[in-house]
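Reviewers asked in the last cycle whether our approach scales beyond single polypeptides. To address this, we selected a multi-component target totalling 617 residues and predicted its structure end to end. The input consisted of the following lines:
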Amino acid sequence: MSSSIASSKKLFSIYKLPGFNFIAITCFVMLYAPIMILVGYSFNEGSSLALWEGFSLRWYYSAWQNEAVKDATLLSLIIALQASLYSTVLATMAALGTTRTRAFRGQTAIYAMINQPLMVPEIVTAVALLIVFATIKQATGYQGLSYLVIAHTAFCVPFAYLPIRARLEDMDRSLEIAAADLYATPWRCFRRVTLPLLLPGILAGAMLAFVISLDDVVITEFVKSAGQDTLPTFMLGQIRRVITPEMNAIASALLAVSVLMVSLIFLINRKKT
Amino acid sequence: MTPIIKKSIVGLAMVAISGSASAAGELNLYNWGNYTNPELITKFEKAHDVKVTVTDYDSNDSALAKVKAGGHGFDMVVPSANYMKIWIDEGLLLETRPDQMSNFKNVAKDFNNPVWDPGRRYSVPWQWGTVGMIVDTSVYKGDINTSALFLDPPDELKGKINVPPEMNDVISAAIMYLGGEPCTTDKDLLRKVRDKLVEAKKHWLSMDYGMIEKFAGRDVAASLYWNGAGFRAREKNADVRFGYPQEGFALWMDSVAVLKDAKNADNAKLFQNFVMMPENAALISAFARYANGIDGSDKYMPADMKNAPEIIIDPKLSGAGKFLLACSPKATEMYTAIWTELQK
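The resulting structure, written as structure tokens, was:
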């Protein structure tokens, strides 16, 4: 096996294709240069986004002191925590239902439906939710946070579902079968065998859902009620006036959280193999 | 009447007056992001015992979409002049008659009867500004109050001109320069506008935003642009001046109005009257750095804004200012065609 891979490597290696280095480097520069510049200017002493006036942490400090930023951050975290919790529970159930059952008619259709938020343009979901929630808001008069939590839960489900399902498909079925052979009830088998093995997938799914919820703009902008600005919608609102490096500082902090979460997912997934 | 009864009657009367003027409760303001001075809100909350919640929007369109859908929970909104007619025609606004409020006398006469809200039956000025010429006077010493600087550029400025990528602002400036009215559908005139713009473009350096930095770094010497940016560019480069094209320049204004389905309409009306007080209007300007359309507010403005020529229009030129309204679909279609050709 390994010898055949080695020989095929000699015949064809993507690294040896002409222009490989050039294309790879261009891609990385295009992807990361704007972010690097954004992070760089968050440390600018002056109030400019294009003229460097020396290093300072003043914009981080001013963001930290900004009550509106604090409120928006807190709200973002509350929504992201709830949405990732609920969507992970739903996604776990969905993943079990689509992998630990006998193949049934319409399984592919259900699979596609669960992942619908990945295909449907966000603005479509946003407008649809706006109309539905507006009707409910008018009928009930309730303006609370639940609308945002429900909306976020809905679009976070596929992001939680994919890693959990992947994990379930990779897992060794023989352990579950052995447990069943030894007269474990289905519930006991799930609790003592499936769930512990699945845990890394669930954690990865939850973190991914958390990050996705934290970063969402379009749906939140349409669904939010009075006083419900999350960090991204707050940032979007700032473009009306001159943008100071305070925005860069907030964006950099948000970026750091996202990178941290994704790194954790990576580490969790690596450990189990 | 005993003094005690007298006192209690006065007391009751006062309660009644303040009761009718201030319904203790809530107010939900839906405004552009980063546009509402927190000090203004605190002052209003203290004065009227009302809890104010500010929620941001980022465009006229998204605000309109949310309010039209209903169930939004907002009481007030701050649409731009070119959108106000849509809000009024769609029946989304409450006719609060600001023109009959006690502070209406403070509204500057240029803004007390705007075409987009005749008689000010719905809205109260929030902020306004202009689109004019930012010029680096170390490069060009001539008259800066003309659109010729970007349409028939003098030699000193050639190759150092910027024009913002804003179709309506650029085409309207060119139409007014050639003697037409914004939103015109006169084909002969528009043909001239197109030829003028295409010809002038050869002398432009860029069609871009971010001019404050460009003027600070002296990369650009003239640009059609917004007055607030001109003000900030001058803070960074003392040679920068802001000109108001005498052929005609565009005005924009955002005004605060009450929504028809507002739950706290009384507080919203109080707020409308409140922002027409000069010292309160000055608070709005101190934060958002634009003029407010309330007479007497300059007294309370921050020192750097009091006499800023970017904020206070030269009276000789103020007559040339025109509000840009939403043009007819036919006009927009023709302008888009010109704009597309210009972008080539």
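Chain B has a mean pLDDT of 88. We regard this as preliminary and will revisit it once experimental data from Aim 1 are available.
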